[in-house]
Structure formats: C-alpha cells, structure tokens
Amino acid sequence: MALKVEMVTFDCADAQALAHWWAAQFGGTVQTLMPGEFFVVSLADGPNLGFQQVDDPTPGKNRLHLDFHLEGDIEPELERLKAAGATETERHAFGEVARWVVLADPEGNAFCIAGAA
C-alpha cells in the first residue's frame, strides 16, 4: 500500500478567513468540514490545504512551508499576493540559476514563490 500526501494543515486563529484567503490566492475551493473548526481548500494540482481553528497557534518560525514555482517573471505574482495581504519577508538567489521570495500569509505562515533568476 502506497501513502500519498493528501493534505497540509495549518493551525489558525481564524481558520475560515485564512482558508478563504488561500483559496482566493491559489484558485481553490473551500469546503467546511466542521463549521467554525475545520476547513479544506481543494486545489487543482497538489494536496488539499486544511485550516483548523486553535486557541493558541504555535508561535515562532514555521517548521514547514509551501513552495510554489512560477515560469517567467514572478514580480507580478508577488505584487498580486502582497496586495491581497501577504507580506514579503525575504529574497534569495542561487546564482543565475534560481531565485525565490519568502512571503507570509495574513496569519504569518511562510510560503515561497520561486522562478528563474
């Protein structure tokens, strides 16, 4: 029997709002599994994203984050995400081969947008 990643789940202060933010930014649809408690964002490609309401989300740096890759110029996508409430936190490059930008969603969860340098 083979295992597959079905969902990546985020602990959230406002699970419903954060689920809708991710769905809007990455073309997903929101399903309410447990009203006020647990929401799932289904994406066309990749695993589902889960958002669970918790009283005290884990503080500090994420130990896990999502990486997205975009062909072509990533600047327009970065500007779109920042206008929607994401915060740019870092920029990196690996020579002329690749570059990536670290962003945070409205609750501070890190994710990266990568593209050609």
Describe the structure.
The chain has a four-stranded mixed beta sheet with strand order 1-4-3-2, covered by helices on one side. Strands 5-8-7-6 form a four-stranded mixed beta sheet, with helices on one face. It has helices at residues 15-26, 75-83; strands spanning 7-12, 29-34, 38-42, 48-53, 66-69, 87-94, 98-104, 110-116. With 117 residues, it is an alpha/beta fold. InterPro entries: Glyas_Bleomycin-R_OHBP_Dase, Glyoxalase_6, VOC_core. Residues 4-116 form the VOC domain. This is VOC domain-containing protein.
Secondary structure layout:
Elements (H helix, E strand, L loop, with lengths): L6 E6 L2 H12 L2 E6 L3 E5 L5 E6 L12 E4 L5 H9 L3 E8 L3 E7 L5 E7 L1
Parallel strand pairs: 1-4, 5-8
Antiparallel strand pairs: 2-3, 3-4, 6-7, 7-8
Protein name: VOC domain-containing protein
Pfam family, one: Glyoxalase_6
Organism: Mycolicibacterium aubagnense
